């Protein structure tokens, strides 16, 4: 008997329902928290169809309408859907939205700026994959005033934590001789932990303040910290096209 054309892997079905990213869905399956037609499934690769009854922690899986938001994350907010220490998290700003949302990637607690939020786990997983090399522009306030020559190693690719990074672009936007600080923009397309801070620290400059101002074609135009807006269909399509290229 031929297989149904609408079959998909169980972890993908969970991700598309907005429950979790595909990687987190695999962890849920491994932990025995998923049932299919009343039977617990712990193996990867199980195929399901829309006719199968899937439950996660006893809650039936339903297909939510996919949502995509651009969020201006303030400083002092955790890039997570929840926090066991009861600290403020990004989903606290979306309490009026019926969908279960989570961030695409993360920004440090003390970093503000552009963060994507979605309930589309498959979309989030593609954007977070190492092969996805979208350009991200950060603006950093540095302790100290660098010269262009001192920052030139950024363009060659620094070695950070024993890893050679890809070349980055920079621009010295302003300096304050009285306070001995500078504002510098940095455009990268990688995403290792604390990358921007580590890059500047490698060159001898402490980052006092950091914000992500651009993510691929998206900017923070018209938004204040704590604001968000729905992505336009063309913007979602542009990100999907970039992720497919990766």
UniProtKB/TrEMBL annotation:
Domain RNA-binding S4: 8-67
EC number: 5.4.99.-
Stated family: Belongs to the pseudouridine synthase RsuA family.
Record keywords, A-Z: Isomerase, RNA-binding
Enzyme class: isomerase
Protein name: Pseudouridine synthase
Organism (species): Lacticaseibacillus suilingensis
Alphabetical list of Pfam families matching this protein: PseudoU_synth_2, S4
Superkingdom classification of source: Bacteria
GO function terms (MF aspect): isomerase activity
């Amino acid at each position: 008997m031929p297989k149904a054309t609408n079959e998909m892997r169980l972890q993908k079905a969970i991700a598309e329902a907005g429950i979790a990213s595909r990687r987190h869905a695999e962890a849920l399956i491994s932990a025995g928290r998923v049932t299919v037609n009343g039977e617990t499934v712990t193996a990867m690769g199980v195929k399901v169809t829309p006719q199968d009854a899937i439950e996660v922690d006893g809650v039936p899986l339903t297909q939510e309408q996919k949502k995509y938001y651009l969020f201006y994350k303030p400083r002092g907010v955790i890039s997570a859907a929840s926090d066991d220490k009861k600290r403020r998290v990004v989903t606290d700003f979306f309490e009026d939205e019926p969908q279960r949302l989570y961030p695409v990637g993360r920004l440090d607690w003390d970093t503000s700026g552009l963060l994507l939020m979605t309930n589309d786990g498959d979309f989030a997983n593609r954007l977070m994959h190492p092969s996805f090399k979208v350009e991200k522009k950060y603006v950093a306030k540095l302790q100290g005033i660098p010269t262009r020559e001192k920052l030139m190693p950024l363009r060659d690719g620094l070695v950070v934590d024993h890893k050679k990074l890809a070349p980055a672009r920079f621009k010295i936007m302003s300096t304050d001789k009285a306070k001995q600080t500078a504002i510098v923009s940095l455009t990268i397309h990688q995403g290792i932990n604390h990358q921007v801070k580590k890059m500047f620290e490698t060159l001898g400059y402490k980052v006092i303040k950091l914000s992500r101002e651009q993510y691929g074609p998206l900017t923070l135009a018209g938004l204040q910290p704590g604001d968000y807006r729905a992505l336009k269909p063309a913007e979602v399509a542009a990100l999907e096209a970039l992720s497919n290229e990766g």
